[in-house]
Every structure is written in structure tokens, then in C-alpha cells.
Amino acid sequence: QAMIDEANTPESFKIGEKFENYVREFLFIDNYYKIIERTHNYKTNKDYVQSSMKPDFKFFDKLTKREFYVEAKFRTGTYQNKIVWCNENQLKRYLEFNKETPVFLILGMGDKPDYPDFLSLIPLTQAKYTGLFPSHAEKFEIKIDNPVSSKILWGR
Q1: What pTM, to 2 d.p., does this model score?
Q2: Are 126 and 141 within 8 A, CB to CB?
Q3: For residues 122-145, b (16+ Cβ closer than 10 Å) or e, as one string?
Q4: Cα 26 from chain centroid?
Q5: Cβ neighbours of 96 (radius 10 Å)
Q6: Per the CB 3.0–4.6 Å rule, which of 54, 56, 85, 91 could disulfide with 73?
Q7: What is the SS3 assignment for 95?
Q8: How many Å apart are CA 107 and CA 19, to the nearest integer?
């Protein structure tokens, strides 16, 4: 069954799941953040779980005692000189969540979602469009494989 599930999972979902695992393992680590929620994987979501409409993660910052969401997106390149990270409906949903709880976009770029060449951590208030110019994403660049500290998260 596992082999059938793997074969039937679209490549875009496999890439997204690999990047989400990278985000949890290397960036938003247990030492700093408690995970409150995580969206379902492709196999679970075939029955369509309503909570999948939320951003990928909800975390609790152990230092500041603040909750926040993280939407993880991995892209291999640009389209018309922009990094298209979501569609209009997704953006509207994320903006609604951001009214109650801060939402951050963690954007990875490169060839491998489990080892990105570039990372950017952007507050949703600075990612108000479905496509971002690379120069804008670069303003929020973070180090690869380095855990995100509270200072990096909230200090911008």
C-alpha cells in the first residue's frame, strides 16, 4: 500500500512535504518552538480535512510565549521575473488568518526541497502579493540549516 500511495502522490505534494519536513527539522526546532498544528499530508487529505485550509504549521514560541503560523513554499525558479508562491484564494485565506495570529512565509528556492539553496522568512505583511520579486525576498534572507531564533522571527 505504501508503494501505491507513493506512486499516486503528485510530485508537487512530494516536494512540498519534503520542504515542510526540512522546515521543521532544521529551522523551527523543538528547542525553540512547540508545534501546535500541522496540515495533513496528501494521503490523509484525500478525504479533505478542513484544517488543510490553514497555513502549514502553527507554532508556539517558547521564549516569547507567542503563537504564529508558518506557510512553507518551495520553488525551483521564477515566472515572469517573480517568485509565484501562492494563488489569490490562498493569499486571501492567509491574510484572514494573519488578522488573528501572525503568519510568516518561509520560502525555499533551489533544486532540492530537502536542501534549499536560498531561504527567506517573510512576515505576511511583507508578502501581500501572489508573486514576489527576488530582490524583495532577498531582504528577508535567512541562513540555510540554521534554526530560526525568536530574534530573527520577531525582531525585523
Answers
A1: 0.87
A2: no
A3: bbbeebeeeebeeebbeebebeee
A4: 13
A5: 11
A6: 85
A7: helix
A8: 9
Question: In terms of DSSP H, where are the helices of the chain?
Answer: 2-8, 11-22, 88-100, 134-138, 150-154
How confident is the model over 76-113, as pLDDT tens digits? 999 999 999 999 999 999 999 999 999 999 999 999 99
Residue-wise pLDDT tens digits, 67-86: 999 999 999 999 999 999 99
Sheet of strand 141-142, all strands in order from the earlier edge strand to the far edge: 33-38, 57-61, 67-75, 103-109, 118-123, 141-142
Q: Provide the residue type at 86 as one letter.
A: C
State phi, psi for 79 to the nearest 5 degrees.
-130, 120
Task: For the chain, give the number of residues.
Answer: 156
Helices of type H across 25-149: 88-100, 134-138
Q: How far apart are CA 40 and CA 49, in angstroms?
A: 7
Q: Which residue has the cell 502522490?
A: 9
